[in-house]
C-alpha cells in the first residue's frame, strides 16, 4: 500500500487575516497575477520588438463556504473597513482532509470588497452559503505553492 499523498486532493482552504483564523472555506478562485507589457520598437532592429513589463495586476480572490460561526468574523472585518481600519495581510492555506498543508499564498494589504450571504428560502433545502471577495496588493514573499 502506498503512502504517497495525491497533490491534487485539496479539500478545503483556511483563511487567516492578520494572524486570526477565519475558518475553513471549500472554494477559492482568483489567485492570479498578470504582468502588463509595453511594446517598444527600436529603430534599426527588425528582429524583434522589446516587451517591457510595466505593472503587475492581481485579480480579486473569492472564497466560498457554508455559513458557520466564523461568518461573524467576516462581518466584523467588513465593517472595520468603513471605520478606517488598515488593510490586513492574509494567508490562504490549501489543506488535505487530514489537515496537512498542500500549499499557501500570502496576500499583501488585503481588504474585503464583497460579501454575499445565503439566499434564505424555506421551500428549498439548500445549504446556506456565503461568498467573500478580497482585493489585495500582491503576493507576499512567504506565500506561494
Automatic annotation (TrEMBL):
GO terms for molecular function: structural molecule activity. It comes from the Bacteria. NCBIfam families: conserved hypothetical phage tail region protein (TIGR02241). This is Phage tail protein. It comes from Actinomadura bangladeshensis.
